[in-house]
């Protein structure tokens, strides 16, 4: 059983998977998620060479924009001219916070250069209560947390996640170890599988719930998978198909009545 009545629905890079909103990490994708009534969106962050923090997934401009180059090596004056799919500018995290002051943002810190700009952005907006800091790098995650004036939600990096998974499968003392390792963590954000390894299983879910830690699964786009995972008892889903997930949760009576921002 999930920890809360309403599972946490997170729109991956905004609502980027529908027929009309395919520009991932564009402001229109974040707007579309908010219009659907999403409380949470997910984004990665990178910083330009002059410290401007972008709500953007890739370390380069090449894949999704009409420009080229490594973001960390380019100033904002250059990056600001790039257009996602030749259409929309790359949003700054500052713009996202300002445009949607009620929206919560799950933030994956993709590069060391984004650490200080992210700390500054959260502090400037007083956004501590509406962010979750995540990173594949446990070092980057901890660096952000240590620089903030107040605690924020957080999910573990790969190193800590591995230790938590192992502890969840240790008989007798594993639960105590899990709880100690999970101090300061509010959610595990994991794939269902990593290659041939099943990451999500009953032992992990039960250990997390015993420690009052949520379990979120990414990135889930098929209705049948959403329903199966929700039935299993997970607490949140990250999806490209924000429309499909909302439909599933509404049908299950698990969509909170949150006004669009």
TrEMBL record:
Coiled coil: none annotated. InterPro entries: GP_PDE_dom, PLC-like_Pdiesterase_TIM-brl. Residues 7-249 form the GP-PDE domain. This is Glycerophosphodiester phosphodiesterase. It comes from Dermacoccus abyssi.
